User: What shape does this take?
Amino acid sequence: MGDTQRAAQVAFAQFVRNAVDAAHDEHGWSIKQVAARSGVGRSTVFRWLSGDWEHHPELPKVRAFCAALDLPLGAALRALTPLAYNTSPPDAPVADPVVEALFMAVRDRLVDPRTTAAEREHIRASLCHLARPRSSRAG
Assistant: This one.
């Protein structure tokens, strides 16, 4: 098993653990209830929690799990496809470390299963507002 696959197993196991914990805290759901509500087998959920899988989890099961727990599918997919941190993209601009830290904090909030849908929507709306091109006022 390669380092990238192991990193994916660890990251996805943490994603599933956070999701299951949030479902328990918010709804009182057990792992059995999470499995039943998502249509994903209990043994599969336990394998995901332990990071014990050889092949990537099946997309329909991951999608169903995320839908049942109101989680963004992208967060699960990012956990399953970790970036190689020892390589940087060519011609990557040098960024302000404070701004980079803020970007990472916002990204983490968006993918955290404990972030409410209302909070996610507020973050997205704020980002859309900030990303809008400025109107030029010539005159």
Residues 94-139 form one domain. The longest helix spans residues 3-27. The mean pLDDT is 84. The radius of gyration is 18 Å.
